[in-house]
Amino acid sequence: xxxxxxxxxxxxxxxxxxxxxxxxxxxxxxxxxxxxxxxxxxxxxxxxxxxxxxxxxxxxxxxxxxxxxxxxxxxxxxxxxxxxxxxxxxxxxxxxxxxxxxxxxxxxxxxxxxxxxxxxxxxxxxxxxxxxxxxxxxxxxxxxxxxxxxxxxxxxxxxxxxxxxxxxxxxxxxxxxxxxxxxxxxxxxxxxxxxx
Length: 196
Hints:
Elements: H1 3-20, H2 30-42, H3 46-64, E1 77-81, E2 93-94, E3 97-98, H4 114-125, H5 132-148, H6 153-185, E4 186-190
Antiparallel strand pairs: 1-4, 2-3
Helix pairs in contact: 1-2, 1-3, 2-3, 3-6, 4-5, 5-6
């Protein structure tokens, strides 16, 4: 890929992000995009800027893909669980941004009870050969069950709106996180042909 192609793709991606999500640029992973673009277009450290730009282009590409599945780099390989791998969780967040715990000053705070759902979801992504769609569906059910337990109607509706937001986020933006977690959880080994 030529440098001009990288710059064009980076510009296009930045325009799309700015058009779709102008309200959340500060204090989120979108800030990293802006920083990457500044580095890329400034001319210094052009390789780092290009690599960051490509990573975000890959993330958008993954978000637009119809099916999200981890694949080994070579066609004659298959993923198998790493022997001593322990699934991990970063709580309710991704791309270096964690949603704050309950805080009445911020509408996007996480319901305290969502934390267990987020942890289970992260563990599912971080378990070799787990299906992303299955992980996401279990996550959705967990979030919605938290909201069903709310007694006050306004609290229930607010919780449901947050649950939908989190579920849509993993559906739309979770592919890259899923693939990265699978890469950490799996070893790619040579396939052996089964004898008939």
